[in-house]
Design brief:
378 residues, alpha/beta, TIM Barrel, Lyase, Ornithine Decarboxylase, Chain A, domain 1, 2 domains, binds pyridoxal-5'-phosphate, Alanine racemase, Ala_racemase
Length: 378
């Protein structure tokens, strides 16, 4: 008998898969990679993933917030790091500049905030400029771009910062035929030309996320910013070649209870599913309090002992119920909610829940334990 302690629910992240994915993406794109580790590395764990990405050759790491970028430095990462989301006035901008993190500005207020951080830290900033080429999220509007570039150039000449990059972000890269892709590429090239005319010579020009990096070579420029593909999930299902990417995350639990119910038994709150015949049900001890989407109710499937078993009824805060084949499934059996095929995947869950795989892996957590396997020194 195994003496392994029973684990109620845990997320297992395979860092060997992350390394293999990063290497596969580098080989396919033949372009330096920025591995995007925002949102706790899409739920996979900021620091372990950052180390795996660097070990596999990622030249850059990308973070949304200042806190994420600073956590990388605090853990000893000394390589290029880009952050792109601060609110002018956030005190930690000074720390980010002092730590040699590349910060992104897309407005006059942003430049003012970076200049103030430079004054406080006594360190020239590494500054990247972001142009809005059509996502209409952050990024400098094209009509303000020349003015922003001039100010950035003046600051560079004054020694306030070095403009290390110019970049933008795509809206529809997972739909390769969408006309916005070409329009954004043209707008980006125009913005680069304006930057050059005004005397900027950035080290890196970058536009592509995972989908564009994989599908559209013309978007690769000097650097590609890959997030979801590094975690082994497909950024554009139906449009990508098979690169052999492997999902790094497995969400697993142990069956807490198994029972037979008679025909006519309603399952879970609201009785949204009713057994039409005597049925065996398994209780999985995780719910929306652990980031399992409530939309999975009556839609997603889990794997119990190699068999795909449908979720029956609504997902509760702490529990969900699955139907298991009669005679199959015992208390303590492993339940894989999602992982690598032939298990259901995060992509399967996304389709069942009407969302994208990004949201499935990023939001799972709560009371799941988390451990990492496949460390390089193992
Ligand atoms: C999240 C993000 C990425 C990564 O996108 P994926 O589709 O996961 O590859 C790249 N760039 C920016 C600015 C992002 O916010």
């Amino acid at each position: 008998m195994s003496s392994d302690p029973v684990v109620r629910a845990e997320i297992v992240v395979d860092l060997a898969a992350v390394r293999a994915n990063v290497r596969a993406l580098a080989a396919h794109t033949r372009t330096p990679l920025m591995v995007v580790v925002k949102a706790d590395a899409y739920g996979h764990g900021l620091l372990p993933v950052a180390r795996a990405a660097r070990a596999a050759g990622a030249s850059w790491l990308g973070a949304a917030t200042l806190e994420e970028a600073l956590a990388l430095r605090e853990a000893g990462d000394t390589g290029p790091v880009l952050t792109w989301l601060f609110v002018p006035g956030e005190p930690r901008l000074t720390d980010a500049v002092a730590a040699g993190i590349d910060v992104t500005a897309h407005s006059a207020e942003g430049l003012d905030a970076v200049a103030e951080a430079v004054r406080r830290s006594g360190t020239p900033a590494r500054l990247q400029l972001k142009i809005d080429t059509g996502l209409s999220r952050n990024g400098c509007a094209p009509e303000d771009w020349a003015g922003l570039v001039e100010r950035a150039r003046d600051g560079e000449r004054a020694g306030t910062w070095r403009v290390t990059g110019v970049w933008s972000h795509l809206a529809c890269s997972d739909e390769p035929d969408h006309p916005a892709n070409v329009a954004q590429l043209v707008a980006f090239e125009d913005a680069l030309a304006v930057a050059t005319e005004h005397g900027l010579a950035p080290e890196v020009r970058h536009l592509a996320n995972s989908a564009a990096a994989i599908i559209s070579p013309e978007t690769r420029f000097d650097l590609v910013r890959v997030g979801i593909a590094a975690y082994g999930l497909d950024p554009a299902p139906g449009h990508t070649p098979d690169l052999g990417l492997r999902p790094a995350m497995t969400a697993r639990a142990a069956l807490a209870h198994v029972k037979r119910v008679p025909a006519g038994a309603g399952v879970s709150y609201g009785h949204s599913w009713v057994a039409d015949r005597p049925t065996t049900l398994g209780l999985v001890p995780v719910g929306y309090g652990d980031g399992v989407p409530r939309h999975a109710g009556n839609h997603a499937q889990v794997d119990v002992g190699g068999k795909h078993c449908p979720v029956r009824g609504r997902v509760c805060m702490d529990q969900l119920v699955v139907e298991v084949p009669d005679g199959h499934g015992a208390v303590g059996d492993e339940v894989v909610l999602f992982g690598a095929a032939p298990h259901p995947t995060a992509q399967d869950w996304a389709e069942a829940c009407g969302t994208i795989s990004y949201e499935i892996v990023t939001r799972i957590g709560g009371r799941f334990g988390r451990r990492w396997v496949g460390q390089e020194d193992e």
